[in-house]
Every structure is written in structure tokens, then in C-alpha cells.
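TASK: fixed-backbone design
INPUT:
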């Protein structure tokens, strides 16, 4: 059972990282300033994390950040 949990966790980490890379490549096509890119990425990642917390049944933390 522990192996399954570790495997699921590693798959989630890989999926999470791919999502970050996809967000970055979508944004950098339209924005030239590195500061703007960083701000937009931060906002999108924060929203994605909040959505994941709500989906997992932990909306308390997500609501505190909104």
C-alpha cells in the first residue's frame, strides 16, 4: 500500500511539473517582460493550487488565500 501511495505521489509531482511548464510556455508567447511573466505564472499556479485544494476537500486553505 505504501508503494502505491509513493507511486501516486510521484505521478502527481510529475503532472504538477508538466502543468507548470505548460503554463510558462503559454504565457511567454504573449508577454515579453520577465517580471510580467513571473507575476502571471505565480497567479496561475496559485489558482491551480487553490482549485486542487478545493477538489481534494480542503477548501479552508484555498479560501484563506483568495
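OUTPUT:
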Amino acid at each position: 500500500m505504501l508503494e502505491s501511495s509513493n507511486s501516486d505521489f510521484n505521478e502527481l509531482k510529475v503532472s504538477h511539473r508538466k502543468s507548470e511548464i505548460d503554463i510558462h510556455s503559454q504565457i511567454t508567447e504573449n508577454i515579453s517582460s520577465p517580471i510580467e511573466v513571473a507575476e502571471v505564472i505565480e497567479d496561475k499556479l496559485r489558482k491551480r493550487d487553490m482549485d486542487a485544494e478545493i477538489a481534494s476537500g480542503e477548501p479552508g486553505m484555498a479560501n484563506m488565500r483568495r
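COMMENT: The chain has three helices and no strands.
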